[in-house]
Amino acid sequence: MGLTGRLVEAEVLEKRSLEILEKGYPPDHPVLLRPLESLAQIELEQRKIAKARETFQRLQSIPTERPSDRTVVHGLAAALLFIERRYREAEAEYLKSLRAWEESGRGQITDVAAVLDGLAVLYIADGRYREASRTLDRAIAILTSAKDAVATDWIKLFRARAELHVGQREWRDAEADLRAAISAAGRDTRVDPALLKSLLANYAYVLRKDHRGREARSIEARTAALQTYELDNGVVDISELLAKTRTHKK
Question: Does the pTM of the predicted model rise above 0.70?
Answer without folding.
Answer: yes
